[in-house]
Amino acid sequence: MCRPRGKKILMGSITKKPTSSSLKRQLHHGCALARTSRTEEALVVLEDVFAVAERSNERVLAAEALDWLFWCAQAELDGRGVQRCAERMLALPISATSPQAFRLYVRHAVAALQLGDAAGALNIIERAERVSREADIEAFTCYLSAKADTLAALGRDVPALEYARLSADICSKRSDPFAHWQRTLYLGYTLQAGGQLGAALDAYLAAATIASDASLVWEQALVTALAAWIAFLVGDVVQALALLAAARASSARQPCLRVACAWISLRIGISVGDDQLIASGADAHLLDVVLSSADTYAVGLAVTTFHDYHRSRGNDAEADRLLRIGADRLASLASGWALLAPIARYGDDAMVAKAEALLESFPRDHRVARAYRRLFAALRAKRDGSTALGERLAGEAQLLFEDFSNAFEAAQCLELSGRVAEAHQRFSALKMHGEIARLRSLRARRGRPRNGYDAIQQCREIKGMLAQGATIKVIAERLGVSDRTVKARVADIYVDEGVTTRAALLERIRSRTRKAPDLIAR
Q: Can you tell me the distance from the alpha carbon of 93 to that of 70, in angstroms, rounded to the nearest whole number?
């Protein structure tokens, strides 16, 4: 293999004169390569910059090189490289009195988060807030984004979104289009993690526009593919297919993009019944790339999709093998939401216990976690033979998924709750013909709401009226039930929301419905 040209340039310059200015020049060269999609060459240049900077005790330059090495490793789907960058970042010493301490603390927090230690990352960020007094605008926006990611990983979605919005808004007013794209991408991640799918779709589309204007090739294709996935989840199949076609038409060949397009193509292809999409996505070579990458985020999504594909083809042994791999690498819900349903339905006791522990680690009021808790419990109940309980829990899960516009999961819950005729109608409206074909083998029956389904629907109505200031008596009159029933429902809501007073409940409800300012450039 030919040695990348960047290597020759680097070794011919900084090894002879490892000064701060020469290091900065080579660092800028590596960054320029990364920004122009030449990530493989960038990895070579940046690796040498880091080595020289570390030997020269240039900690800030070393940390910046690691930042870009981390980014390039993600683009190349090198999970072990990402982990190695995180470990080396944490090994860099920090002097709390240094003017650069704040920037280094933030990078340490990002590294800790990448290694799966969200609580440790938050501790590092809080230490930076306590001991650091100096931060330039770039370090400050990185801090905001890191805190957003950390809080989201801990299930604290409301404050996470505030930090992510502010970071994206600041970058939108600056002259660095790559930073603007990156922060808008992370805003999309945060919105998606918090269950605001419509806003997440807007953020990804905004990021695609930013990337297009700045001639960022693979970056534009990646966020377009992510937008296709969200459009599919909210039920807009036509838009999803158009966005996916645009992403697949890109000339970029970064592994992370190719893998994202593959699993999204396969998942959408299965649901809409498009054999061509299925064939293009069911690439065994790309699955091998994912499994060898050690990238936990890619593994979770790809394994789930290929598991469903093999299960639909009757290849249960291969599906079980993939599920074991996915469960073994399941480290957080950030990379594992999609794995929860197959684990609940087909996993062994160890897999189930691990998934349940992750679900319980999220706050009770986190709406995405609440929906998946119900779905997980419904699948487990049906698997254990408790059909009536499983159907009731599935009906409750359906309403919770509808709360954050996840039309795909809501329709699947309709089927799971035994209301197959309604599920057929819903999939028809969504133009998911592959799901309709699968339903034909099931016995259609008219569904009727179960008691638990009625209760959660009633709770939703009560929450809305409480947010408008209605009293218990007024709510009871509107619903045509007794005051005692309303009080019982409110008590259930207290438990579900994790509050103990009416004032706290009202603040939580209003904080969700309060319209946040739109900071995304449209």
A: 18
Structure tokens at 272: 């809409």
**Hunting for tokens 């994790």 — which residue is that?**
498
Residue 348 CA: distances (Å) to CA of 232, 312, 314, 351, 355: 30, 20, 19, 5, 11
Paired tokens of 309: 């594909």
Give the rounded distance of the alpha carbon of 104 from its chain centre: 25
pTM of the model: 0.79
Spatial distance between the Cα atoms of 115 and 87, rounded to a whole number of angstroms: 8
pLDDT in the model for residue 374 = 93
State residue 297 phi and psi, 5-degree precision.
Answer: -70, -45
d(CA 488, CA 322): 44
Q: Supply 424's token pair.
A: 């057929």
| Tokens, residue 179 | 């930073």
**Residue for token digits 């009293």?**
471
Which ranges of 173-329 would DSSP assign to H, the alpha helix?
Answer: 177-193, 197-213, 217-233, 237-248, 255-272, 275-281, 284-293, 296-312, 316-328
CA distance 370 to 383: 20
Q: What is the DSSP string of 421-485?
A: HHHHHHHHHHT-HHHHHHHTTS--------HHHHHHHHHHHHHHHHHTT--HHHHHHHHT--HHH
Q: How far is CA 510 from CA 199, 469, 489, 506, 516, in A?
A: 18, 11, 18, 6, 12
CA–CA gap between residue 424 and residue 444 (Å, rounded): 9
Mean pLDDT per 10-residue segment, the chain (522 residues): 38 49 90 88 93 89 91 88 90 81 89 87 91 79 93 91 95 92 94 92 97 93 96 95 96 90 94 92 87 81 90 90 90 80 91 90 88 92 90 92 92 90 90 89 49 65 80 81 83 76 76 44 38
State residue 9's pLDDT score.
Answer: 38
H helices present in 115-176, as ranges: 118-131, 137-153, 157-172
Centroid of chain to Cα 464: 28
DSSP code for 7: H
Tokens of 171: 């970058």
Task: Confirm if 520 and 206 have CB atoms less than 8 A apart.
Answer: yes
Distance CA 482, CA 280 (A): 57
Measured torsion, CA atoms of residues 274, 275, 277, 278, in degrees rounded to the nearest 10: 120
The pLDDT of residue 164:
96
Contacts of residue 455, defined as CB under 8 A and 6 or more positions apart, other chains included, come to 396, 489, 492
Give the dihedral sign, CA 419/420/424/430.
Answer: positive
pLDDT for residue 490: 85
Nearest C-alpha neighbor of 112 from the set 92, 132, 137, 138: 92
Phi, psi angle pair for 404, to nearest 5°: -120, 30
What is the model's pLDDT at position 314? 87
